[in-house]
Design brief:
The protein is mostly helical and 271 residues long. The chain folds into two domains: 9-146, no CATH class; 196-265, Helix Hairpins (Orthogonal Bundle), CATH 1.10.287. It has seven helices and no strands. It has helices at residues 12-40, 47-69, 76-95, 109-118, 121-140, 150-232, 239-265. Helix 4 (109-118) packs antiparallel against helix 5. It is rod-shaped.
């Protein structure tokens, strides 16, 4: 098996479906924020560029959902691309709305947490490095928000940090619970497969043992049958012994039937 395939590779399709559903929810929330913040909080935002970024991410999510509907094969590379797209899209929207000073910048942690849960370490490390790079870039290059009142800006920043913390806790807890449940289900399925394989091995071993025993018993029984037949044809054999020979012949025939049945049940006919 390739080393870049994570342990839960079998759950890749399920993980991508969850990511698509979560992305739709976040897109709806982001759309509400872009349209509502200028009116409710009186903070001017570059609405058109933000809506364009949302539209691109929505189109990407629609294409991803279409591929999942066709049940196309998914790989860790594809899941990594999905998370990278989320990071870049979030970085673009943060760039247009205050950069690292935006309290929502902590949302960059969510894609990193998702990647760490389901991807191999080198994919997760690459995603973490990208998140660090985006945060560092947003600290020096961004479109500042126009909030003249410093006191109001500080209050809004604290409120935004609280909201970001609540959302991050809920989403990270949800991701961990769902991923842990998937891992437990996968482990249970693997345990059942291993138990079935062990039972099959035992059955095969018993069958081989029975077939070998039947083959080994067949030769002496055939020899005994020949000897009994020759003795029975001897005219000098006393009548009392002849009756014993008939009984012995019957018992040899019964043993042959038992050996033949044992070999047949073991999957190998007696020669």
């Amino acid at each position: 098996m390739r080393s870049d395939i994570p342990a839960d590779y079998g759950n890749m399709l399920v993980t991508l479906r969850r990511l698509v559903h979560l992305r739709w929810l976040l897109l709806i929330a982001a759309l509400g924020a872009i349209l509502g913040v200028p009116r409710l909080l009186e903070i001017p935002l570059p609405t058109l560029p933000l809506l364009l970024a949302l539209a691109v991410l929505a189109a990407f999510n629609f294409l991803t959902a279409s591929r999942l509907a066709r049940a196309e094969v998914q790989t860790p590379w594809m899941l990594t691309v999905q998370i990278v797209v989320d990071l870049v899209a979030l970085g673009v929207m943060l760039f247009l709305s205050g950069g690292a000073a935006n309290p929502l910048v902590s949302l960059l942690l969510l894609p990193v947490a998702a990647g760490a849960l389901v991807l191999a370490w080198h994919f997760a490390a690459a995603i973490a490095a990208l998140a660090i790079g985006l945060y560092s870039l947003l600290a020096v290059w961004f479109v500042p928000l126009n909030i003249p009142d410093a006191s109001r800006a500080a209050s809004l920043h604290l409120a935004g940090m609280w909201l970001t913390f609540v959302v991050s806790v809920i989403l990270i807890a949800w991701l961990i619970v769902r991923m842990t449940a998937s891992i437990r289900a996968r482990d249970a399925a693997l345990a059942l497969v291993r138990e079935q394989a062990l039972r099959d091995e035992r059955v095969v071993a018993l069958g081989a043992l029975a077939a070998g025993a039947a083959h080994e018993l067949g030769t002496p029984l055939a020899t005994m049958a020949v000897v009994v037949g020759e003795l029975d044809r001897d005219p000098a054999l006393p009548d009392a012994l002849r009756a014993d020979m008939d009984l012995l012949r019957q018992q040899i025939a019964a043993c042959k039937e038992i050996v033949t049945g044992l070999a047949d049940r073991a999957g190998a006919g007696r020669l």
